[in-house]
Each structure stands twice: as structure tokens, then as C-alpha cells.
Design goal:
mainly alpha; two-stranded antiparallel sheet; 5 helices; 2 strands; 67% helix; elongated; binds protoporphyrin IX containing FE
Length: 158
Amino acid sequence: MAVYYRHWFTLPKTPTNWLALQTHLVAGVAVAALVVARVFWFFHSIQPDDPPGTRFEHLASHGMHRALYLFMIVMPISGYLGCGVAIEFMGLGDIPSFKDTGLFKSLGVAWETFEKPVDFVHKNSGAYLVWVLVLLHAGAALFHHYVKRDDVLRRMLP
Ligand code: HEM
Ligand code: HEM
């Protein structure tokens, strides 16, 4: 949201534009921390049994959940790797940008060459791929609730 605000409602290189970018970066880092916690939790908890279904349904569901986890891991990593400005982290100090760490130099390429494919993945996954994944996923949740009439959607509630 902060990125769209930045592009649609503010002029480049103005304070509001910068604020929108920094909001995106800080939120992205916070999401990364939550994803790490979630993955740790996943491996240290008992997963609910699959509801009754065909072999195809189980394959599709596990494949989609893996894709969603992959998305949640790839987004913050590609965001950080393609980031050229330091992240002003909630008044606690700056996180240096990946560009400033100079680590990309070990690949022997210029920053622009390195940044391009990384940004491509980050922007297109974040702007388009996410809708495909989330709409199919939410559609599957509704399918469980209204067609299969099981408790898969309801058991998400506390
Ligand atoms: C869940 C995590 C994230 C999601 C869903 C996400 C999503 C997006 C989207 C949709 C865009 C805009 C694409 C466009 O221009 O059309 C974007 C741009 C960007 N993201 Fe992320 N992002 C995430 C995390 C991060 C993180 C952790 C960083 C850096 C530490 C980051 C850095 C950037 C940068 C530098 C841009 C380009 C901004 C611009 O050109 O205005 N992102 N991101
Ligand atoms: C309209 C929004 C959404 C609805 C209604 C929804 C609903 C559900 C339901 C019913 C489950 C099954 C829970 C179970 O097996 O007990 C689930 C699992 C899951 N959802 Fe969503 N979801 C939504 C959005 C999202 C988004 C945006 C993401 C990530 C980007 C996501 C990622 C996942 C993952 C990774 C699982 C599998 C968890 C696991 O078994 O480890 N969901 N969701």
C-alpha cells in the first residue's frame, strides 16, 4: 500500500514519497520477522490432519501452501537484496542497504546489473503473482466452507 501511495499520490524525491518508501521497508522487515517466527512454529507444532479429500485435492493444497510460504520468504529477501537505500528502523537505527554492504561485488557485477533481475522478481511477484496465489487460496477456503461444508475455514478462527 505504501508503495502505491508513493507512486500514485506523491512526487518523487519529496518527504512524503520517502516516508511511504520507508514505511514499506519497515513493514517488510517486520513481515520477515513474523515469517521466521511462523516457520519456526510450523516445525515445532503438530499440524492438523488433512480433511477428507481426493489425492488431487491434497496435492493441490500442499502445493499451494508451499507456494504461499515461498512467496512470504522470497518477498522480503528479494526486497532487501534489491534495496539501494538504508532502512530507518523505527528510531532504533539504520539497517544498511544491501547496496551499501557491497556484497554484490563478489559476483563481479555492477549494482544496476545485480539489481535489475532482483527487482523484477520482487515487483512482479508483489504486484501480480500474489493475486493469483491469494485468490486461488481464498477460493479454496470458500470451496471448503460452501461446497464441501467442512470445518477448514472455521478452524482458522481462535
Ligand atoms: C512481505 C513483504 C513485501 C511485499 C509483499 C512487497 C511488495 C512490493 C511491491 C508490490 C512493490 C512495488 C512494485 C511496483 O513498483 O509495482 C515493492 C517495491 C519495493 N520493495 Fe517491497 N515488498 C515486501 C518487502 C520488502 C522489503 C523487506 C524490502 C527492503 C528491505 C522491500 C523493498 C522494496 C523496494 C526498494 C521497492 C521499490 C520501491 C519503488 O520503486 O518505489 N520490500 N514491494
Ligand atoms: C481471504 C484471505 C484468506 C483466507 C480466507 C484464508 C484461509 C485459510 C484457511 C481456511 C486455511 C487452512 C487452515 C487449516 O488447514 O486449518 C489457510 C491456510 C494457510 N494460509 Fe490462508 N487464508 C487467507 C489469506 C492468506 C494469505 C494472504 C496468505 C499468505 C500470503 C495465506 C497463507 C496460508 C498458508 C501458508 C496456509 C497453510 C498453513 C499451514 O498449514 O502451515 N493465507 N488459509
